[in-house]
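thoughts on these C-alpha cells:
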Amino acid sequence: MNIFTTNDRIINSLKLPISFMSAFLIIMYFISLIFGVGDNVQIMSFFIWSALSGGFVASYITHNSEKTVIISSSVITVNVIFYLVNSRTLSILATLFIAYFLCKIIAGFDLTKFCVISILVSVLLGFSFAYLYILIESFTRFLADLVNTNSFLFSFINEIYTLIIGDDFSQLFYFKDYGSAIFINEEIASGAVNIFSADKANPASAVSVYLTGKYFANIFLPIGIYVCLFSKIKDRYFIPVTISLILSILCGNNLMFSTFLFFYNPIIYLSYVICTSLCYLFINLADVRLGFVDSASLIELVKYSNDILIFIIIGIVSMILMYFLCLVVLSKYDFDFYRYIPKSVRKLIDALGGEKNIISIDSYTVTVKNPNLVNILNIDCDLHENIVNLIDDDYNLLIKYLT
C-alpha cells in the first residue's frame, strides 16, 4: 500500500472509518446540544477513530484478520497511554501513521512474534508520544507568538496543526489571551470565543481576526471542492465525502473532510488550506465580525449573523474560486491516475526504452516497439528482435508497478 498513489492507496482503507465517524459525530453533536456532553463525545470519538482507522489500515496492508485486531488494539493502547499522561487524545493523523508504521515494521513476522512486538512497540510509542508532547506544547506557544494578529498565518498554521497534532493551537486563541483580552461588563474576557460570547451584539476586532474565516473553511470552500470532485468520487467515495461534508457544514467540524482531502489528494488539501487563509485575511481586512460559541457551523451562521445575505454572497464567491482552483490542481496532479514508481523500477523502465516503448509484459518477457532503445548494459536480460527476456526479480517489479 502506498499512502497517496496506486490503486490500493490508504484512502481506500479509510472510507468506512470516515463515514462512520462523520455520522457518529453528527448524531452526537445534536445530542450534545441538548445534554451538554461535548467533551466526553470528543474523547470517545478519538478512541473510536483509533480502533476503526487502525483496524482498516491494518486489514488493507496485512490481509490478516488476527493481525488486524492486534494492530487496532495497539493503536488504542498508544492513545490510552497518551491520554492517561496528558489528559488528551492523539490527533487524527497521528493515529493513522501509528497504524501504518506498526504494519510496515512488523507485518512480516509470524503471529506470535507479531503480537509480542506490537504490544512492546505500542507501549513504547505511547510513552514516547506522551513525553514528547511536553516539547510540542513549547513549540505550540512559539508558533502562537509568531502569529501576532496575522489572520492569514493563524489560519494556515491552525488548519494543518489541527489535523497533524490537535486543537491546542486554536485553543490558545479561542480561550486564552493569545486571542486578545478586553474588559467587558467590568470583567476580563480572554480569547476570541470568550470575547464574542461576552458581547455578541458588538463583537470586538479579535472576532474578525480569529473566528469569522472559519465559516469559509467549514461551509463554503468544502462545497466548492465537493462540486468539483463529484464526478470523480461519486462511484468510490460518495458516502464518506458526502457525510463528512454534512458534518463540516451543519456541525462546524471539518476534521473528517480534511482527513479525506489530505489522503485523496494532498495538493488539493494544501490549496484548501491556502484558500481558507486568504478568506481569513480578506475578512479581517474587511473587518467582518461574525463569531461562534461552539463551532463555525451553518446553525451558528444563521443564529449570529446580522446580515447573512452579504455573508453568503462573499461565501459563494469564495466557493467558486475554490472550485476553479481545484480544477487547476486536478489538471496537474490527479492522484487517481498517478502511479508511484520507485527509482529502481524507473531505471529498469528507462533501460527498456521508457514506458511508451513497452508494448506488453507477459511470461517473463517484455515486448518493445523499438529494440534499439533497449540498453542491455543496464539490465540483466536477453534480447531477441523486439522480445526482452528478464530475470524473475525485474519481471515481478514490472508486473507490480506497470500492470
User: Anything to note?
Assistant: The chain has a mean pLDDT of 87.
